[in-house]
Write a structure and sequence with these properties.
With about 80 residues, the protein is an all-alpha fold. It is built from 3 helices and no strands. The longest helix is centred in the C-terminal third of the chain and has 21 residues. The radius of gyration is 27 Å and the shape is elongated. The protein starts with a helix and ends in a 14-residue tail after the last helix. It comes from Rotaria magnacalcarata.
């Protein structure tokens, strides 16, 4: 909330406008349905699970690269495609 007020003061000084009160900032948040909650921290994934997911992703990419049509020199389609 303090950061919001500081930034509001900076903007009002740049625009040569009187700074709004702290109540105004609170009402602004309510009016626009904003909240100042911190994002919830994600739980860390165990290292073995990360390794398993990364391996499966790379395997998927290898398989998917075979699905594309074959390309000749400089990325052109081959006559068969």
């Amino acid at each position: 909330f303090r950061y919001l007020q500081r930034r509001g003061r900076q903007i009002s000084q740049e625009l040569n406008h009187p700074c709004p009160s702290s109540k105004w900032f609170g009402r602004f948040l309510v009016r626009h349905r904003l909240s100042l909650q911190r994002p919830k921290r994600q739980q860390k994934i165990p290292l073995d699970e990360v390794h398993q997911k990364a391996t499966s992703f790379y395997n998927y990419l290898r398989r998917a690269s075979r699905w594309a049509p074959k390309r000749g020199p400089m990325g052109a389609f081959t006559p068969r495609d």
